[in-house]
Amino acid sequence: MNGDGTGERDSGGYPVRVVLADDQALLRSAFRVLVESEPDMVVVGEASDGAEAVAVARRERADVVLMDIRMPGTDGLAATREITADPDLSGTHVLILTTFEADEYVIEALRAGAAGFLGKGAEPGALLDAIRTVAAGEALLSPAATKSLITRFLGAGAGPDPLAAARLDVLTSREREVLGEVAAGLSNEEIADRLGVSPLTVKTHVNRAMAKLHARDRAQLVVIAYETGLVRPG
User: Fold this and answer.
1) For residue 2, pLDDT beyond 60
2) Distances (CA, A) of 61 to 1, 87, 97, 134
3) DSSP 8-state assignment for residue 87
4) Cα 217 to Cα 23: distance, rounded to the nearest angstrom
5) pTM of the model
6) How far apart are CA 136 and CA 138, in angstroms?
7) What is the phi/psi pair of residue 74, to 5°?
8) Using CA atoms, how far apart are residues 52 and 46, in angstroms rounded to an integer?
9) Which of 52, 68, 171, 182 has a beta carbon 3.0–4.6 Å from 175's, enabling a disulfide?
């Protein structure tokens, strides 16, 4: 975890420590072979249900937990909430793996603090990139699936709650602007190009917005942007 308290990982040359949580042993084995084929990653544990995933994440101080949602006993959603609520695991990022990207539980997982999600049908390279992305403290939100989820679940209500919108009062106008761009799925470099500032300046604004809004990572910033009405579906 970075010294700025944002949960961003300092690469430092250390391998990304990964926990695999899925009730299918064969799938876990396939993921292990894939992950350990990379020199910058290591699988430090496996779990067949959510409770075991939490225990292994705590024991191994994992950087990333690949979390299936549907597991017997404690499911992936409950496990994600437990991990993200534990201050000792502030540097642990949950990447949700799901068979169906347009899944009602995915948005709840993001609200609970998951760093993002990826369909199980993704290409091997996409999964490896996803692990690196969330380990670095970035959000991993499939654009098509995110648009579908936001439209179906965040856009289905009567509109933003004024009390929720008041959460943004702590932000400066520039931080609000950057938050809107983050919610649009833009990277720091893309936001920098659009606003005519440096990527480092954008990162500073993002980190300050995360601290003020008590968001673990960019994925939670995206959810907050929609829930408060700063950004609207469509």
Assistant:
1) no
2) 11, 12, 20, 15
3) G
4) 27
5) 0.73
6) 6
7) -75, 115
8) 8
9) 171
Taking 70 as the threshold, does the pLDDT of residue 13 lie above it? no
Burial (Cβ within 10 Å: 0-12, 13-18, ≥19) of residue 39: exposed
Q: What does the CA dihedral 144, 38, 77, 221 come to, rounded to 10 degrees?
A: -50
Q: Residues 42-95: pLDDT tens digits?
A: 999 999 999 999 999 999 999 999 999 888 888 898 999 999 999 899 889 999
- Residue reference for tokens 């919610």: 183
Closest CA relative to residue 223, chosen from 108, 68, 98, 117: 108
Distance CA 155, CA 39 (A): 42
| % of the chain exceeding 90 in pLDDT | 46
The contacts of residue 114 (CB under 8 Å, 6+ apart) are 67, 80, 84, 94, 95, 96, 219
DSSP 36: T
DSSP letters spanning 90-143: TT-EEEEEES-SS-HHHHHHHHTT--EEEETTS-HHHHHHHHHHHHTT--EE-H
What does DSSP assign to residue 169? G
